[in-house]
Design brief:
Elements lengths: L6 E2 L2 H10 L4 E4 L2 E4 L5 H18 L5 E4 L3 E4 L4 E3 L3 E4 L2 H5 L3 E2 L2 E7 L5 H5 L1 H6 L7 E5 L6 E6 L5 E6 L5 E4 L4 E4 H4 L7
Parallel strand pairs: 5-8, 9-10
Antiparallel strand pairs: 1-3, 2-3, 2-6, 4-7, 5-6, 7-9, 10-11, 11-12, 13-14
Length: about 190
């Protein structure tokens, strides 16, 4: 399937197709599109975050997942493949095909997906009642835009840009230096 090609499917047909698909696809409101490949920096940053989370969450009821696990956003009729997510809900551990109750989602930005990740995808993710923190991680510069849900159901933005600044995910009590997320990345 070419990047410009769009097809319309039911959610059930989409899920069945993903079981044997050669490439990953995302789904929203019947529209399906192929996922594009990632750069070295993209994969390295996502990997660094996953390793950090995996280590920190060991022994807890929470689990970290990397880009091959789908998240279902029922209210938006959507299935996405976040770069990294964390769920602490036992119902998610029982579902091997997708997760529905993440507390944290991170998308590593690329020029071709940034507008969607900041716009329509974030609009869909905000409909997840469980989601507490959403990160947008830049691959071109050392920057993490962290959106945290407030008690009033608003989203508070904090941008991390200083190399030695502590970035944090309060809900799961994770902290690391910004430079740790970018370890082993290539200059852009």
């Amino acid at each position: 399937m070419s990047l410009a090609e769009k097809i319309t499917l039911t959610a059930e047909a989409y899920l069945k197709g993903e079981e044997t698909a050669e490439f990953k696809h995302e789904y929203q409101n019947g529209e399906v599109w192929a996922m594009v490949g990632a750069t070295d920096n993209h994969v390295t940053i996502a990997g660094n975050l996953f390793v950090l989370l995996k280590h920190h969450l060991k022994g807890s009821p929470c689990r970290a997942y990397i880009s091959d696990m789908k998240v279902r956003v029922e209210k938006a009729d959507a299935y996405f493949y976040p770069d990294v997510m964390v769920t602490c809900n036992p119902k998610d551990q029982a579902n091997t095909q997708y997760k529905q109750h993440p507390v944290f989602i991170a998308e590593v930005l690329s020029p071709s997906t940034e507008a969607f990740d900041r716009g329509n995808k974030f609009n869909a993710y905000r409909q997840l009642d469980s989601l507490q923190t959403y990160w947008l991680i830049d691959t071109q510069a050392m920057r993490v835009d962290s959106f945290t849900r407030t008690q009033n159901d608003d989203w508070l933005l904090h941008s991390y840009t200083k190399v030695d600044e502590l970035v944090e995910i309060k809900r799961i009590e994770v902290q690391c230096l910004l430079k740790e997320l970018y370890e082993d990345t290539l200059p852009t």
